[in-house]
Design goal:
The chain is α/β, with parallel strands linked by helices and about 240 residues long. It is built from eight helices and twelve strands. The protein starts with a strand and ends with a strand.
């Protein structure tokens, strides 16, 4: 069985070698690159199972690499963990808005990083299996096609990131059920870190902007104050 391939892009040699050492030790193939342009060139010929992407890179920063990968149908579903020395909320929000699956701040624990990699790869595999088993869902003007990872509104395809689609699909499969932020983190991202619940709020906000006529008065995804979110239960 071929080992999962991880692409690590970071211009700090010590970080790159630290990640390569720990990932290889845990059974992964690893390719390490030091700039964004080389990462894009690599992706033209090879498709890794997961990418660890630093923000501050020479020639092309991590945000631009992320934009390019998320715009390409062949790479849009690859889990991407953003890595940065910055711990500002705006940096996290921007990365999540552009379609990142996770965000880790330097310095980090190699053990935690490996755990997150395992979690995202496991989540990707199980999500693919579940998606194949589910049929098309139609709620009012919204149609969700799990087998294609697509959703449309009034016949127009919605431009959703993989995590936005998975959130929408999970909520729509369980109309009326309230999901806490912690549960959504565990079910969609595959890990439990209460300090990361902002990740859920950001994804919900951008999902509503693409889904709702009036995001301030949502028709589909409701907020249950102090608890979490639920998909509107239609009669």
């Amino acid at each position: 069985m071929e080992l999962p391939l991880i692409l690590v892009v970071d211009d700090e040699t010590n970080i790159l070698e630290l990640l390569k050492f720990n990932l290889v030790k845990n059974g992964y193939q690893v390719v390490g690159l030091t700039n964004g342009l080389d990462a894009i060139k690599f992706m033209e010929k090879d498709k890794p199972d997961l990418i660890i992407l630093d923000i501050m890179l020479p020639y092309m920063d991590g945000y631009e690499v992320l934009r390019i990968l998320r715009a390409d149908p062949e790479t849009t579903g690859i889990p991407i963990i953003m890595l940065s020395a910055k711990d500002e909320e705006i940096d996290k929000v921007l990365g999540l808005e552009l379609g990142a699956d996770d965000y880790v701040t330097k310095p980090f624990s190699p053990r935690e990083m490996v755990a997150r990699v395992k979690s995202h790869l496991r989540r990707k595999a199980t999500a693919s299996q579940k998606i194949e088993q589910n049929n098309e869902i139609q709620v009012k003007r919204l149609i969700i096609k799990p087998e294609k990872y697509e959703a449309s509104m009034d016949g127009k395809k919605l431009d959703l990131t993989p995590k936005e689609f998975e959130l929408l699909h999970l909520l729509a499969l369980n109309p009326g059920r309230v999901f806490t932020r912690d549960i959504l983190l565990e079910r969609i991202w595959g890990y439990d870190h209460s300090r990361e619940t902002r990740t859920v709020d950001v994804h919900i906000r951008y999902l509503r902007q693409k889904l709702e006529r009036d995001p301030a008065n949502p028709e589909y995804i409701e907020t249950v104050r102090g608890v979490g979110y639920r998909f509107h239960e239609t009669s």
